[in-house]
Amino acid sequence: ADYLSGVTEDAILSDLIGAYTVLFDQLNNLGGEWLQIEEPALVLDQTEEEQQLFIKIYQELLKNKNKLKVLLQTYFGDLRDSYQEIIKLDFDGIGLDFVEGRESVKLVQKYGFPQDKLLFAGVVNGKNIWRNHYQKTLSLLKDLGNIDNIVINTSCSLQHVPVTTENEIKLSKEILNHFAFSKEKLVEVSEISEIYVKKNTSLLDKNIALFDKNRVQENIQLKQKITHLTDKDFIRTPSLVERRADQIKALRLPLLPTTTIGSFPQTPEVRKARLQYKRGELSKSDYEAFLEEKIKECLELQENIGLDVLVHGEFERNDMVEYFGEQLDGYIFTQKAWVQSYGTRCVKPPIVWGDITRPQAMTVRWSAYAQSQTSKPVKGMLTGPVTILNWSFPREDISLKESTLQLALAVQEEVLDLEKAGIKIIQIDEAALREKLPLRRSDWYSEYLDWSIPAFRLVHSKVKAETQIHTHMCYSEFEDIIPSIDAMDADVISFEASRSQLSIIDALKAHHFQTLVGPGVYDIHSPRIPSSQEIKIQLEKILNKLPMEQVWVNPDCGLKTRGNKETIPSLTHLVEATKEVRKEKITYDK
């Protein structure tokens, strides 16, 4: 932690322990029996100093529990750095995650578990929607040894899954039988306890029967295709530097090319037309004519503003993951399975039901139409395989790596079809690349980056040298994985950067980043309109650290959630600032 001048750690600790002691006393006075204290930070890499600080705090705090029973609850990982010390402390219960905690079973086996405490065993997955495989769970519990004081628990809170399958009236009972949302997970906790403690075989037999059936038919051809992938399939040739010359000739763009990230404002008119089409109130031909008109308007707007590389606006898309999932075999969708994303924003993630394939082109129709309406390059816009999977409920019967490779092959087919249709720039967004990065740095590569980065490379490995591949990343901090991002081998990467005061630029420079970059020069999450001068200052900051030839100019994210009244002047100012900087730089260089 950072402390104000004159404030010591001991003073903070004294006040903090005092505040918690007051809470303990209040709960005791109210007759409270159990208090759950959540410490998920314990599953992160712990320094010796942090471990000692934890022990110091709780040795003092637990002296004041009186009759209160205190449960230390952890989740999203294991306690490999501090388990030995934690079990010595005066907690009455300790909650361990046996779903994501890879070392949790080994820790209990190696160091045991105190008989004077309750083990809250997180064996029901609180982050995914699949039914629990009771036999596997019982086997795990058996592996823990002779521990009588076990409470069956979820691996984490249930805010990550929808409320109940009872709200889903369009999915068949056969499909819903395989799902457990929050309400169903509580039933699972009860049933596993009933089987484990009371040996209720009828509940176990029913669960065994569910898992004995083949839920989906395996796509043998797809499996063989993945099995036969070689190192060459993940490498694009020629190299990044060599193909850059081909792209300069093919695209003929000015220095500091201007563009947007992809989506344009989804006005009430656009949302209304999509809803009417889904309800059958608008014919397919009328809906497509409407979309063509919106695309033409969007292209004219961008040309009038003076942007160098255009986008079609994505008016046909409801969501950057759901839109693709709806067109891929292997996905299913719910009606009301909403979960919290952040704040009051909720999302309805699609579910990976089976093997993923692309039955037909998904975006070519709209990108090709847009390119036919202008002489300027129009970017093809795709969501990358890692983001599609990270923003879905994934399968549990195959690895995340295998599902991602299936998606990568499907998106690869789309990339090649876009190229055949004359699209010279193709953007493959990986907004959620960072989201599934393991919490422990030691697991980053072996558990995630060693397969997620190659999966992205697989998507674009077969395109021509003159085809320029872009990607976009947002919603995360990327400074500590810059080498991995460079290893994606995209030609251009745009980042969300304005809200972090362009801090990523220093990281790019420090790591000798080779890819062309478009750090966002203004924040689209605010309705505030940046002035030309403000954007110019941002650009100058970037160019003080990166060569002009390496920089693209763009907002920091898509414009879907903004209105035209902010979007048009903001983009106009972006182009004005860029032209001014170009002129000054070129004049100065001369």
TrEMBL record:
GO terms for molecular function: 5-methyltetrahydropteroyltriglutamate-homocysteine S-methyltransferase activity; zinc ion binding. CDD domains: CIMS_C_terminal_like (cd03311). Residues 256-579 form the Cobalamin-independent methionine synthase MetE C-terminal/archaeal domain. This is 5-methyltetrahydropteroyltriglutamate--homocysteine S-methyltransferase. Gene3D superfamilies: 3.20.20.210. Coiled coil: none annotated. Residues 8-146 form the Cobalamin-independent methionine synthase MetE N-terminal domain. Belongs to the vitamin-B12 independent methionine synthase family. Keywords: Amino-acid biosynthesis, Metal-binding, Methionine biosynthesis, Methyltransferase, Transferase, Zinc. Catalyzes the transfer of a methyl group from 5-methyltetrahydrofolate to homocysteine resulting in methionine formation. Pathway: Amino-acid biosynthesis; L-methionine biosynthesis via de novo pathway; L-methionine from L-homocysteine (MetE route): step 1/1. InterPro entries: Cbl-indep_Met_Synth_N, Met_Synth_C/arc, UROD/MetE-like_sf. The keyword Cell membrane does not apply. Its EC number is 2.1.1.14.
